[in-house]
Design goal:
Blueprint (H helix, E strand, L loop, with lengths): L1 E10 L31 E3 L26 E11 L2 H4 L6 E8 L3 E2 L5 E2 L9 E7 L14 E2 L6 E11 L10 E10 L1
Antiparallel strand pairs: 1-10, 2-3, 3-9, 4-8, 4-10, 5-6, 7-9
């Protein structure tokens, strides 16, 4: 089985790492990237526009959580796109699963949800659901998604805010979530 591991950024804000350089001072430029042998690239996209991530979850009010833990609200649909099944060597009936893992740790009393970056909102995490509305627990493969053998495949998901405590404190939400697509 082929596997593709990519980082997916979900959130309201982005952060930039770097150091300022002033006259007669030393600075630093930070680069990130990846080189892989992947012949079947997978892209996180906004399914409405087809634009690549990051996925903007929008803004919700603290009161939308109703002062209770385990309340879900807001969020956004996103998709993982494979542009050409023929180039990937898919056959009719092939399927793929997706496993998501939070780089900020798991959240919720049962650890099924995706933690967010510290320094922003508190008492909240992200829940990811498959196209049928079922939770895709952190570290657990999704339901199988059919792959298009001759064209584009879009594996649809939905990310929602989920309260992990009765008190949610306002602030930015940044979640960096890796995904692993298991292909035939």
């Amino acid at each position: 089985m082929n596997k593709t591991l990519i980082a997916l950024a979900l959130g309201l804000a982005t952060s930039l790492a770097g150091t300022s350089a002033f006259a007669n001072s030393v600075g630093q430029v930070n680069f990130t990237g990846n080189i892989n042998a992947n012949t079947c690239p997978v892209y996180p996209i906004d399914p409405g526009t087809g634009a690549p991530g990051p996925i903007n979850l929008g803004s919700v009010a603290v009161v939308d959580f109703g002062g209770a833990a385990d309340t879900e609200t807001g969020g956004r649909e996103f998709a993982l796109q494979i542009k050409d099944g023929a180039a990937c060597g898919f056959s009719a009936g092939d399927t793929a699963t997706v496993r998501f893992d939070s780089t900020h740790g798991n959240a919720g009393t049962d650890g099924k949800y995706y933690g967010i970056q510290t320094g922003g909102a508190t008492g909240v995490a992200l829940a990811i659901k498959d196209k049928d509305g079922n939770n895709v627990d952190s570290g657990t493969p999704s339901r199988p998604y059919p792959l298009n053998a001759i064209g584009e495949t879009r594996m649809a998901f939905h990310a929602k805010y989920r309260s992990t405590a009765a008190t949610v404190v306002q602030g930015p939400v940044i979640a960096n979530i890796n995904f692993l697509v298991t292909l035939p």
